[in-house]
User: What shape does this take?
Amino acid sequence: MSTIKDIAAEAGVSVMTVSNVINNNHARVSPATEQRIREIMTKHNYVPNMAARSLISKSSRIIAVLLPIWHVSTASILRDPYAGQLAGYLEEMLREKEYYVMLCSFENVDQVLMVQRTWQIDGMILILPHEDTVTRGLIEKTQTPLVVIDRHYDDLKTLSVCLDDRGGGYQAAKYLLEKGHRKIGFAAPAIYESSVIRDRFEGYQEALREYGLKEKEEWLFDSVIQQEGGETVAETISRMSDRPTAVIATEDLLACGIIKGCQKRGIQIPQDLSVVGFDDSMPAKLITPGLTTVAQDIREKANLSVQMLMRAIEDPSFRDEYRILPVKVKERQSVQEV
Assistant: This one.
């Protein structure tokens, strides 16, 4: 088995030069020398000792994508189209920058801090933040660069990438109001449980107020996330004597569950009930009728998060930036004018 000294000897360079190649210190090695060293490494199937490399370079090249465990299992979180797509984009973009991605599920701050110490994590990206006490604890206690997606705190220095969630809830409701709907429901996993859901709900309320309307308690549907929750909402709607003519769901899979559940019960979409989702994830494009939804650019969200993290890794003073991405209604066939 070849060692780094063997590679250096065959290439006619110092061990430090080979180390610079392994650690991607491109500025310290000419392109021709780097190519020669990499060809020798490939010929001998040389694999660097990552633990030793971490100790020498003080960099593991590992980024932890943090998945909080809350009211669903972590496996269910990754099955969610939005979360899965976001995690996939993050892995792709970090891999292009020659980082390894570690998926890390956790329930409390101490678990994350232990992972940091054990693996010498270079940076972290938190997706689907839920419990404010845990998210705040991470921001306050970690010494490792951290980007939080979909959560920001004005009173804490935070690197965060978020959506205009309030604007999204407003646009969804305003779109339905302009289509003539006045009986508009709102379906979400525990309406006041997260700031993202709360912001979307407040946007919905704002649009209703502009038309002199107020939300009706019976048309506010708490649910679990994903399709099963949507089918439960559909079951509730099917039993109502005074039904809404339209429902806004705070995620596409929930909206698709409502559509499927209504179709099973003879409620036609959109003739009997119009449905609007949120995210413009893959299910919105596949379901029949196609789901009208509040679209966000998930790839751009991942891209901004990675750019922010790379800058934070390079610059220890960079720990406070807040980016808000716009949203817009993507029309398909699940809404009908009344």
Observations:
- The longest strand covers residues 62-68.
- The longest helix spans residues 298-314.
